[in-house]
Design goal:
Layout lengths: L1 H12 L6 H11 L10 H19 L3 H11 L3 H33 L1
Length: 110
Amino acid sequence: MKYLIIILSITLGSFFTANAQDSNRADSTDNESLSLITNSPEEGFQVAIQLARKGVTSTQPDKEVLFMLRDVYSKDPDALIASSQVIAIHFQTVAAANNYWRKHSEEKQQ
């Protein structure tokens, strides 16, 4: 359970700094809806990051705890790799969704 919390919190922490601007960004993304459909792979990657962050904040909504754990996981190579894996899995999901929709969109046009 300890590693699950660390792995989940690393995703959020890697994209935050401890300043107020990033805290405001976290609050603003909590209520945004996400679409898996994107215009480019770069946008898809950003959606993957947002999905990972939403998973973290759903699992651990206490931002003080998340920031407190940051010092632990930021120095743990296994936790950093796990964070990258979470984002990669979400990116695969976004890519699959986009290929599916593009394929069906092309079929409708024909």
